[in-house]
Write a structure and sequence with these properties.
Blueprint: E1 2-6, E2 15-19, H1 30-36, E3 42-46, H2 63-77, E4 82-87, H3 91-103, E5 108-114, H4 121-133, H5 136-145, H6 157-183, E6 194-199, E7 221-226, H7 233-236, H8 238-248
Parallel strand pairs: 2-3, 2-4, 4-5, 5-6, 6-7
Antiparallel strand pairs: 1-3
Helix pairs in contact: 1-8, 2-3, 4-6, 5-6
Length: 255
């Protein structure tokens, strides 16, 4: 499930484990890994079951199962100084992975929550229900027109619908996960610092005053705003995303 995308020139920098946006896969983090160029942490990305349009179709995995497998792989690999990045709906498994790692006594150095607001429980549940009523084709079309995911235009109809189905699964799971936390906030917040990463021109993360709502789940939250790049800034502004990681993970020079 974890794919290693890059090495690190400094072992102390740790490992950045990345969860893709709804309908995405590990490939989405290749631009970020290339932009880091061996600086900062080694980059791992989560390859979600059923999300590779070029592979044989397989069942999607529940969020709970994804998190459990990722936590087991992180601990099994003995990764130290773990950082997590969740993009859009990928923030849900990133948050839950951080919670599970901390429960196991594994230190989480930082959690990056990108292109997502916490929102409201009723709003989340309503969005999940609407997604679950839509067809794969309708969802794929909406991704192209409403959210500007132009890469879908490069796929044939069958593969585009495949992405639509994966998007529905991931997005609905994230909505229901966060709705549960909003209705019953956790007794113990994340101790890891959280950096909320947004693009100024992304309508999904407006209004700005809601970006600190993540304090419901974490003790320490700061916001880093990119000047532009839209919702998919991992693809459009990977260098800026990489600088965000490096700024937040700077290490002292070895003595």
């Amino acid at each position: 499930m974890l794919e290693r995308l890059s090495e690190s020139a400094d072992a102390r920098a740790g490992a950045l484990v990345c969860f893709p946006y709804a309908g995405g896969n590990a490939v989405n983090f290749h631009p970020l890994a290339r932009a880091l160029g061996g600086r900062g942490p080694a980059v791992y990305a989560v390859e979600l079951p059923g999300h590779d349009v070029a592979a044989a179709r397989e069942p999607f995995a529940p969020l709970e199962q994804v998190v459990e497998r990722v936590v087991d792989e992180i601990t099994g690999l003995g990764l130290s100084r773990v950082l997590l990045w969740g993009h859009s709906s990928g923030t849900a498994p990133a948050v839950e992975t951080a919670r599970r790692l901390e429960q196991r006594g594994v230190g989480v150095a930082r959690v990056f929550l990108a292109a997502q607001l916490l929102g409201e429980a009723a709003e989340r549940l309503g969005s999940a229900e609407r997604l679950e009523r839509g067809s794969d084709a309708e969802i794929a079309a909406g991704l192209s027109t409403d959210l500007g995911l132009t890469a879908l235009g490069e796929l044939d109809a069958q593969r585009a619908e495949y992405v639509g189905a994966a998007y529905r699964h991931d997005c609905a799971a994230a909505h229901r996960y966060f709705a549960g936390l909003l209705e019953t906030p956790p007794d113990v917040k994340l101790s890891a610092p959280v950096t909320v990463v947004v693009a100024a021109d992304d309508p999904v993360t407006a209004p700005p005053e809601r970006r600190l709502d993540w304090r419901l789940l974490a003790d320490r939250v700061d916001v880093h705003e990119l000047p532009d790049g839209g919702h998919w800034f991992l693809r459009t502004r990977p260098a800026e995303a990489a600088r965000t990681v490096l700024r937040a993970t700077v290490l002292p020079a070895p003595s």
